[in-house]
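note to self: dont lose this again. the chain is below, predicted strucutre after it. 83 aa total, dont forget to put it in the shared folder this time
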Amino acid sequence: MLQKVSALLALLAMFASPTMGFDSYWHAQCIQRVGEQFGFAEDAWKVMQLGNFSPDFFGPVADYASKGLKGSELDLLNQYQAR
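---
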């Protein structure tokens, strides 16, 4: 029984997605409170929230693109970004 439970836990740990533990709620709340504390307008602290969230959201996409695209496709993407 102990071996089965250990094997199940090992499989769950191996196949668990790293995004399962990701939670940006407290980051957003922290940024809102800091923005309000320093007198930022609502639009300003919302822009700050977006700026904080964007790398977390788009980072895996960029990582996938840099590893999964072929050389010529990645070069075209880099040229597009340079514009």
